[in-house]
Amino acid sequence: MTTYHFIGIKGTGMSALAQILHDSGENVQGSDVEKSFFTQEALEEKNIPIYPFSESNIKENYTVIAGNAFSDDHLEIKEAKRLGVTFYRYHEFLGEWLKQYTSIAVTGAHGKTSTTGLLSHVLSSSFPISYLIGDGTGKGHVDSKYFVFEACEYRRHFLQYEPDYAIMTNIDFDHPDYFTSIDDVFNAFQSMVERVKKGIIACGDDEQLQRIQAKVPVVYYGFAGTNDFQAQNITETDNGTTFDVFVRNTYYESFSIPMYGNHNVLNALAVIAICHYEGISAECMKHLASFGGVKRRFTEKQMESQILIDDYAHHPKEINATIESARKKYPNKSIVAIFQPHTFTRTKTFLQEFADSLSQADHVFLCDIFGSAREESGQLTIHDLQKLIENSSILELSHTEALKEFQDSVLIFMGAGDIQKFQQAYEKVVTMS
Question: pLDDT tens digits for 50-66?
Fold first, then answer.
């Protein structure tokens, strides 16, 4: 029996995939940097060994899976190639593994993780399933009926997959270090459409998704009356949002979700549409109401009179959606945005859009740009963004006490880098005071 060795096991997708293989009865281990990541907790709970990077981690009978962030020059990848072991990149292995199941890919520029989490929650209430969520959560089951997984468009990695179904939440310009334009992104999604075997569930309110050409049935969902699945009569309650669903203009059922904001209604509608298509009962879909959320997506904590929210929002449209959710949930509180831009290329490309979306908060704090492993640095600094946002301030890690003055407010820590360290530093300040 082979041992699966994951190079970069703390990556969100890698951590989730390692958990799936472990739950399916395989021998799993991995390596990564010493630095602590939120993804490793689940690995440690399952006693999956995590080693520091070293050539000696690679043995001849191993199957090696490497994270996409690592180049072929990485010492463990070079050793795997030298020994001639079975070697995959993350997306290549996943493409092979999912062929055993009825697979549902969830893709789109925004909303992938939340929708994957929501669908996994609903299906697992009625069936044994496997799922891979982009927040580092993965679960395997030997008798899985469905395999639900997040499929990322970056570098066209999702073209390694041939899923039975695909949910497409939206098409938007992001990852400007790779994609050249919205048309380039659209072409990637159109190529993905051609790889889907049974059906596509797409947001019909998204003008780019309306352009896709498919050989399989396309079911559209959204708020517009032209959609196959439409949400109407949306009401915010103390516990979340309630809405009616119409299927091809005929009333179907009312549903509740414990979240706020139109984007969350759309995510739920996508789940309802795929379940309806697969003949799953409305009763099963009602489990939407007990969804506990995914990691780093509007994750809340109360400290004294303040609500602290941790969110992965790193694109202007995601910032808009997160602030909208906070306003709907806490209509009488002031909103403080604490934002750490992720990558120099994205910050430069969307500089004005970031300024516009952040300006919807009542107060704005900015943290230094978090460069990714794929880029060293940029000419741009956080001050270029600060200039575009009136009355915004720079937040230093050693001086987070500046946030204490916003009593009875909602503090949203946003970003895809290590923004959590600013929240952790501030929580220490509050605890010690």
Answer: 999 999 999 999 999 99
